């Protein structure tokens, strides 16, 4: 019988969000400063061998879903070989990816061959100029073509749009209209304080304001049932091919059913996105610890998982928030 990771509130933690790099080829304002950040040295990143070893431990404790994130995961050399190895780890029966949409068609075809067909693409605007202002990269056409290619290849595509005042409010309705023509899900996220600058204002455009704004434009809006542990509240406009969702990522309305744990590319193990690292598994591993000692570190961290993101945040209220590119989202 597979052992499980269960926290003090009885939540089973079976979903690992694994960052494979802090590097990215975009500079989204809500994630890192324009000049970028001090990316970690390659030697400080968990190697693919170390990642495989840790994944084997996590899967032996019931982690059966893994999301690959970054930075931008596809900028790390050797990522496709690693995903092939990962797809053979017993117990991991779902691998998903979050990308900024700069992966190549060859990589898409290889992902499909590996059975990795669920992908989230970060896209905050359907307007080329606003896209440039948000990402500081002139890559809108490439990203949108990537989305069309993924749909054509039969991927399940979700778009993640971080909504913020004076940035992309005029994109909200065009994004909902996009679901009229394409079988994808657009999710609107509240802005989060992980921008690497230490400056942050409570988002005006929270899940309530977002819902009311869309419902005013679409009175026939239909509530869809949400997957277990989902962070997204999902809706559809009757007759539209796709759907949209609202993720209260700052308001943290979904912590009661949280099944997530996180591992950064440098081995920082978090039981909550908003909380401090509970332990650095890279350092434990490189200190020569046994498999059992690593397991104990994970179990101890899980046992102390915070009730919700607010409690977790209060544990490091003074510390400057790390960039989402480092945390892995
Ligand atoms: S804020 Fe923390 S506890 Fe809440 S859902 Fe996110 S990771 Fe889980």
Description:
The chain has 329 residues and is an alpha/beta fold. The chain has one domain: TIM Barrel (Alpha-Beta Barrel). It has helices at residues 48-60, 79-86, 105-113, 128-135, 140-152, 172-181, 207-217, 281-286, 291-303, 309-314, 324-327, and strands spanning 15-19, 65-69, 94-99, 118-122, 156-163, 185-190, 222-223, 232-236, 243-247, 260-263, 268-270, 279-280. A 12-stranded mixed beta sheet has the order 7-8-9-6-5-4-3-2-1-10-11-12. Helix 3 (105-113) links the parallel strand 3 and strand 4. It is globular. The two termini are 31 Å apart. The relative contact order is 0.16. It binds iron/sulfur cluster. Iron/sulfur cluster binds next to helix 10. Iron/sulfur cluster binds at residues 252, 254-255, 258, 260, 272-274, 308-309, 312.
Short description:
With 329 residues, the protein is an alpha/beta fold. Helix content is 31%, strand content 17%. The chain has one domain (15-327): Aldolase class I (TIM Barrel).
**Continuous helix count:** 11
CATH superfamily: Aldolase class I
Q: Biggest β-sheet, characterized? A: 12 strands, mixed
Order of strands, main sheet, comes to 7-8-9-6-5-4-3-2-1-10-11-12
Compute the number of strand runs.
12
Helix content: 25-40%
Succession of helices and strands: EHEHEHEHHEHEHEEEEEEHHHH
* Mean model confidence by pLDDT: 96
Specify Rg, calculated over alpha carbons: 19 Å
Low-confidence stretches: none
Could you say which overall geometry the principal axes of the C-alpha atoms support? globular
Number of domains: 1
Bound molecules: iron/sulfur cluster
CATH topology: TIM Barrel
CATH architecture: Alpha-Beta Barrel
What class would the helix/strand composition place it in? alpha/beta
